[in-house]
Specification:
About 20% of the residues lie in helices and about 45% in strands. It is an alpha+beta fold and about 220 residues long.
Length: about 220
């Protein structure tokens, strides 16, 4: 009996552990009346903020929403030192309604050179739960005057994201090797992926259900 319960528990745990992460909030920037608003919000969230720009220049000149690519956001190129010194970034905040395991952030990232010299564009992701820790980064080459984006995935591997119950803010810092105001960084299709963590009572019900299934199966085999 004990072995049966342990096996059932292992099966229930495995089924939750391997549950596919799904979008908790997405930002597609397609609503012309409010491009910063979330496109979709999972019921597991109490709330999700707008995709917010924190920049020293005025919205619409140094950063802001854009109709390009069917809807996106942009900011002017800045060097890493300037970006960090000015504390300029894009951010969004989610507030869980349930216990969440946060899995990854995916987004499209790139830019355009504005017929200026080619440049490299980079990003670094941080969160309110992990401070200045770099959760993920990458660099891409921008070599065209047309907006070009590259799919990115930042896996949230820090154990602090395994059981999130309080509001968390994610910040995306962008920086480049360029210096021309015509060189733009663009972002689109930002998605935070995760899964609901079962409450202990729910997990116990699953354990008992799994044990009952295995016991019935063993009884049938003996009959």
């Amino acid at each position: 009996m004990k072995k049966t319960l342990l096996l059932a528990g292992a099966l229930c745990l495995a089924s939750w552990t391997h549950a596919a992460a799904a979008p908790l909030v997405s930002y597609e920037f397609t609503d012309a009346s409010d491009r910063f608003a979330p496109t979709s919000v999972d019921p597991a969230l109490t709330s999700a903020s707008d995709f917010t720009g924190n920049f020293t220049t005025a919205e619409g000149s140094g950063w802001g929403p854009s109709s390009q690519l069917g809807g996106s956001v942009f900011n002017r190129a800045s060097a890493l030192e300037s970006t960090l010194q000015s504390d300029e970034f894009w951010s969004f905040t989610i507030t869980p309604d349930e216990i969440l395991q946060l899995d990854s952030i995916t987004f499209d990232f790139g830019g355009q050179d504005g017929n200026q010299p080619d440049f490299t564009a980079s990003y670094e992701v941080r969160s309110s739960l992990t401070g200045t820790t770099n959760l993920g980064s990458n660099t891409v080459d921008i070599t065209t005057s047309s907006a070009t984006l590259f799919p990115q995935t930042v896996n949230l591997t820090d154990p602090i994201f395994d059981s999130v119950t309080t509001a968390v803010t994610f910040e995306i810092y962008y920086f480049t090797s360029g210096s021309s105001n015509s060189q733009l960084i663009r972002t689109d299709n930002v998605i935070l992926n995760g899964v609901v963590v079962p409450e202990p009572s729910t997990a116990m019900l699953g354990l008992l259900a799994g044990a009952g299934f295995l016991l019935r199966r063993r009884s049938a085999q003996r009959a």
